[in-house]
Design a protein that fits this description.
With 339 residues, the protein is α/β, with parallel strands linked by helices. The protein folds into two domains: 129 residues, Rhodanese-like domain (Oxidized Rhodanese, domain 1, 3-Layer(aba) Sandwich); 203 residues, Rossmann fold. It is 53% helix and 13% strand. Strands 1-5-4-2-3 form a five-stranded parallel β-sheet. A five-stranded parallel β-sheet has the order 7-8-6-11-12, with helices on both faces. A hairpin with a 2-residue loop joins strand 9 and strand 10. It is elongated and about 70 Å long.
Length: 339
């Protein structure tokens, strides 16, 4: 009989053993456990038809239809699985609830000489488990600062120095602002974002600090899970203060190479918050290639927005660190000594 494991025992093994998701391609595409390989028992249409048969004719009729679909594909399933396994022949398997789909393919794999382990409760149990993990108490240090302060660059330098960094923006493929999606890969579904975030979160040593950039709850279409966001809002904030001129230079460097039309579209999205006069000035400056002026004008809105956000925090939790230059390496070393 294939071994059935609870999620807390199953998940750590997926870091070293092949993991097979036997759900349909549509279920897998929506969201999956990071690292899982999709070997679907049914394709999207087959899954739909089996579901209809179950509702109209009961379980036995649905199983018979399922066998008709699966029978011709069994050898192919085994061949795909054998390409994934190592000498120990161990392989992890899951479906949606840990029921017939994963049980059936685990039986097939075992019959073919493999050593399958099935996730008890399936993907549903995984989702419940990872969301609970975001409530796990952590020694979070939030790095704050105005837009253009190079916070992500500083955090990546801290990571090079051995610190733990949860790169929320990197996982969301979004930098947080209206300009955030520029130059990024397409965003994952919110569910996949949570899965990927948990994959990084669970690898941390919770006895040591975890650095996180100060973020609003929503980054494009991806939302930070509530339990983690609450911890971030209650954490100590180190606010890096860098002169506006330095921040403008960074923004020009990061966004100046994008097409004018693309930048103009993003400016239009914040027209109301920026104010019509300043939005028009920014668009005119963009048209004249005065990129520093564009950055300076948009910072009028973003600086106010940041001040509003940080004003909601406990003032005693905010530590200000002033730097004269935009030098992420030196700032990271200073923060490390400071923290």
């Amino acid at each position: 009989m294939p071994v059935k494991l609870p999620i807390k025992d199953f998940l750590p093994l997926t870091h070293t053993l092949p993991l097979v998701d036997v759900r349909s391609p549509a279920e897998y595409a929506k969201a999956h456990i990071p690292g899982a390989v999709n070997i679907p028992l049914f394709d999207n249409e087959e899954r739909k038809q089996v579901g209809i048969r179950y509702k109209q004719g009961g379980k036995e009729n649905a199983v018979l239809l399922g066998l008709e679909y699966v029978g011709p594909k069994m050898a192919g399933f085994v061949k795909q699985a054998k390409k994934l396994v190592k000498k120990d022949k161990k392989i992890m398997v899951h479906c949606w609830r840990g029921g017939m789909r994963s049980g059936s393919i685990a039986w097939l794999f075992e019959t073919a000489g493999l050593k399958p382990m099935v996730l008890d409760g399936g993907y549903k149990a995984y989702r419940r488990y990872i969301r609970e993990q975001f409530s796990r108490p952590a020694k979070i240090i939030v790095l704050g600062g105005y837009t253009g302060s190079g916070k992500t660059a500083i955090l990546k330098e801290l990571e090079k120095l051995g610190q733990q960094f949860l790169d929320i923006e990197g996982i969301a493929h979004h930098k947080g602002s209206v300009f955030g999606p520029l130059g990024q890969h397409p965003q994952p579904s919110n569910e996949q974002f949570e899965n990927n975030l948990a994959n990084a979160w669970l690898k941390f040593d919770f006895s040591k600090p975890i650095w996180i950039e100060d973020e609003s709850r929503q980054l494009g279409t991806c939302g930070i899970p509530d339990p983690l966001f609450v911890q971030m809002r209650n954490a100590t904030v180190i606010k890096v203060v860098i002169p506006k001129a330095e921040r403008v230079k960074r923004l020009v460097k990061e966004y100046g190479n994008f097409e004018k039309q693309l930048l103009a579209e993003q400016i239009e999205k914040i027209r109301e918050r920026l104010g019509g006069q300043f939005a028009n000035e920014a668009l005119e400056a963009l048209n004249n290639n005065e990129l520093a002026k564009v950055a300076g004008l948009t910072l009028r809105y973003y600086d106010k927005a940041y001040e509003f956000g940080i004003s909601k925090r406990n003032p005693e939790s905010i530590i200000k660190v002033e730097r004269k230059k935009d030098n992420p390496d030196e700032t990271a070393r200073e923060l490390l000594r400071f923290s």
